[in-house]
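Task: complex structure prediction.
Instruction: return C-alpha cells for all chains below.
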Amino acid sequence: MSKASAVPPTAVGYQAFDRLRAEWERAWRDRVWVEPPHLHKVLAARSVFVFGAPGSGRTMLHDTLIEKCQSRNPTPPLLVDWDPQLPPADASESDCAKFYVDEIFKHCARALLRHIAAAPDKFRAAPDLTRARLAEFIQLYSNQDPDFVDELAENLAEPDLDAARGVLMQPVSSRAILDISPPSLISKLTHWIQRIELERIWILVEQGKAWITLEPERMPRTLGALLKTLDLFDIPGFEFKVLIPAEFDELVRIHSALSIRRADALRLEWSPEQLLVVVERRLAAMFGKPTFTLKQLGPAKELEDYLHEYGGVTPRGWLELVKPYAEKRYDLHLDRALTLKEFTDLRAANPPKLWIDPRTNQVFLHHKPLDIKPNGLKILRYLYEHGKSTRSALWYRGFRGLDREPKSREDKAWEMPTSWRQTLDQNIYRLRQDLESDPSAPTYLVTQPNETIVLQYTA
Amino acid sequence: MLTLNLPSVWVRHFGLAFDPFEHLEASSDRRLGDYLIGHRQFPVIWENAPALVFARHGGGKTAMRVFGARQAWKEKRAFPIVYLPSIHGRYDPHASLSDHMAAIVRATSASLLLGIAFQPEIFLALERAGRRALVASFADTLPDSLEYFLEVLRAEQTPLALWLELDRLFVLPEPPRELVREFCDALEFAHVDVAPRHAPPPHVRWQEQIEIIFDALDCRSVDLLIDGVDSATLTFGNPEAQAEWIAPLLDQAPVWASEKIYLKAFVPLRSREAIEERVDSLEDTFRASHLEWDAPNLAELLRARLSAASGGRIGSLDAVAEEDVHDAETEIAQSVIPLPREALLATQLVLEKYIERVGDQEERISLDDVSRALAEYQDNAEWLNLGALASPA
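Output:
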C-alpha cells in the first residue's frame, strides 16, 4: 500500500469502552472483532447449544453467524432467526413440544418467503413439483400468521413483493404435506431448499428473551420440552444454533438431545491469549492505531497479571478492567504508556468490584471467585444488601439471621455484647483474610471511626 | 459450502476419500455398509425369526437396522420393510394394531420404491402385469405422489435422492445412471398403465403388498424392522410409553412369523423391563440381543472406518501420527463412554486438535493432540453428566 493511500484508521475514542455491548458497536465492529472460541464448531453441520455468561460474546457470535451466512455464495444456509415465545403456562410437555414445532415451521416459512422474494429466479428455476411443495409449505404456515403477510407487504419492494405474492397465491392442488410428521416434513424441506440453491436450514436462537422472564419452576419444563423437540429435528441439513445464558446450563443435565449427542453443548469461554487479542484490538480502535499492545498502555506484566487474576473468561470482564487505564491514557493525550505509579494509583482508585451471584452465593471480585467461609459469607451478604451496618445490626441480623435487633435484655434473642462483639470481630478478621489483598489496609470491608462497618466497591 | 469444514483439511492431509468419522447418526451415513463391524456377533439380525435388539442411545441400534436392511435386500435373504414412527402424521400413544397396519402399509410402499430404485434390474425384469401391480400398490400409500418421486429421480439420477426423501430407510450401492433413466421410463409407463381404483382398507393393501414381495419379487421372507421407538416427544426418555406403543406389534409377531414375516425391533435398553412386563411370553417368541461395546470393539470400529476411507491404505491413526503415539484407537476407546457415538466424537476431537495446531500445514497427529482431545472430551462428558445418563438403569 502506498504512503498516500495508507490512511490511518480514525480513533473510536471513548466509545470503545463506553458500553461494551455488541449491539452498540456495530458501526466499528470489524475493527474490534476477534474470532470467538469454537466458531468452527458453531458453523459445523451439527446442532449446538452455546452457553455464555454475560459479556462472553453471545451477541457477537450471533452477528458473526448471520454475516457468515449472508456472505456465502452460491449456496448459503437458510437462516431462520428465531426468538422463541413462551408456550401457555399450563401447557404439558407434549403441548410445549407441539407449540415449538409449529413456531419453528412458521419461522421457516417466513424465512423461505423472504428468501424467495429476494431471489425469485432460483425459485422459478426449480422443478415444478418442488416449487409446488414449497408453496404449499409456505402457504400452510404463513396463512397461520396473517400479520406476517401484512408485514411482508410493508417491508418489501414491489418486484420482490410480486415474487412473494406469486408463492402465496400459487394454486396448491396437493395436500401432500398435511399428513406428514414433523421429522419427515423437515427432511423434505431440507431437500426442497437445495433445489432453490440453499445449502441447509439453520435455526438461530439468541438468548430467547422470553426465557429470561420465565419463573424458575417453569424453566426446566419449558426448555426441557424444547430440547426434547430437538430430537424430532435430528435431520441432516437442519440444525439449531442456540446461544443462551450460562445460567441455563442445568439443562445439560436433563436427559435430552444434548445427552444423546443430537446436539453439541459448548461453553463460550475465552483463553487468556484470546482475551489479550480482544483487549489489544479494542485499544487499537480507541486510539486509532493499526495495532496497540498492552505494553503501550502500561506496565505489561502488572497489567496482564491483573487481568489474569480478575478478568475471568469473558471479553467484557477483561475490557471492564482495562477501561480506566485506557481512558486515563486517552484523557491525558499521552504518547507513552502509563507508568507503574500511574497504574498503581489508578488500580487503588478502581479496585475490582465485589458482587455475589444470587443463584450460587459465590462471591467475586470482578470475575475472580473467592472462597469465603460460611460465617464470613453471612456477614458479607448482609452488608452487600445494606451497604453498611452497625456492629449490633451486623451481629443480630446478619450473623444470627434475625429480623430485628433485640431491644433489651428481656428480649429472648439478646446476647451479652462482650461475647458477641468478640465473635463478630473474629469473623470480620477472617472475612478480611479471605477478601482483601491487604487485610491490614482493607479496601472493601472498612470500619469507620464511628464503628459502622461499610462494604465498599460493590457492583 | 458455508460450513467451516475442518474435516476437509485433515481428509486432504491424510489422503482420504471422505471423512470416516462424520456421521454420528447411522441413518445419514450412506457408506455404513462399507465399514460396519460387530454384525457377525448378532445373528438375530440375519435369522428368520422375530428379534429384539436392545441398546443404549448411541449404541448402534440404527446402524444395525440400516445394515440389516441393506444386507437382507442385497443378499436376497429377505425383503426389508423399515417402519419408523415418524411415518405417522401424529404420535398416538395408544396406537392399535390397525393404526400400526395403516402406517406399515405406507412404510412398505416406501421400502418397495426404495428397494427397486436401488436395484432397478429387479423391476425391469418383471412382466408388465407385475410392474403394474407393484406401481398400483404405491397409490395413496407413498408419502408423496409417484410423479414427485419420479421428478426427483430424473433430476438427480440416483436413488440416493429418494433415500433422502424417504427418511433414509436403507441404502445400497448406486446403480449406473443409464439404468436409473431406464427405470424411470419403465416406472412412468407402468404408472400410466395403472387404472385408478378406490383405496382398499389397510389389511387388503397389506396382503397385496405381501403377495408382490413373495411372488413378483420372489423374496423368501420379509424382515419388518422397527426403529426410532423413542423418537416421539412423548416416548423420548419414557420406557413405559415406548412399551405401550410397540406392544401391539410384539403381540402380532408370532402370527407374522408363521407367514415368514419376521418382526425385528431395535429398542432402547431402558425400555427392556417395560416391554418384558407388557408383552406375554416374550422369551418364547423373540430372540433377544443386547448391543454392548467394549474398548477393543470400539477401536476396531474406528480402524475399520479409517481403512474404508483410505481404500485400505491406512489401518490406524498411528500411521498418520508421530512416533510416540501408540494405538490411538485403543486409547480413545478406553477413554470414552463405551458407545460408538462417543468414540466417533472423541476421534473428531483428536483431529480437531490436530488441525488447530497445524492449520493448513501437513504434519502428523501428536500425543498432545490426543491428550488434549481426550481431556476436553472428559470435561464435556462430566459437564453433561453423561456417565450417569448413559447407564442402562
